[in-house]
Amino acid sequence: MKLVRLLPALFALSCLPALAADDGAKLIAKYNCLGCHAVDHKIVGPAYKDVAARYRGQKGAEAMLMQEVRAGTKGKWGGPVAMPPQQISDTDLKVIVQWILAQK
Fold first, then answer.
1. Which tens digit of pLDDT belongs to each residue from 8-52?
2. In a 3-state reduction of DSSP, which class is residue 62?
3. What percent of the chain has pLDDT over 90?
């Protein structure tokens, strides 16, 4: 009897990564990030896959990237165009950064 109650909960938990991925992609579209970035190629800013590769394995990568998005950057990726500071809620920014760092 307990197994019957446990199965729906396990199924729901298994769906969380997919929901987070959908949320990250939706938020990137909502905040118009795709105007300067793409997943797999450089536009004005670096590709999200390149950002993920640069930060992969670094301790504190999520917090560091959140700070860079929040404050903006200039010349970090070799381009002359600066990314302006972004006004994004901490909750949305965390989902976005986690989505970016998950790109491969």
1. 554 544 444 444 557 999 999 999 999 999 999 999 999 999 999
2. helix
3. 70
Count of alpha carbons within 13 angstroms of residue 62, beta-carbon side: 10
Long-range contact list for 50-55, CB < 8 A, 24+ apart? 50/77, 51/100, 51/101, 51/103, 52/100, 52/101, 52/102, 52/103, 52/104, 55/101
> Tell me, what's the pLDDT at 75?
85
- Structure-block tokens of residue 52: 């993920």
Q: Given this model, what pLDDT does residue 2 score?
A: 58
**CA 69, CA 40: separation in Å to the nearest integer?**
19
Q: Tell me how far the alpha carbon of residue 89 is from its chain's centroid.
A: 13
Specify the length of the chain in residues: 104
Nearest 5°: phi and psi at 42?
-75, 140
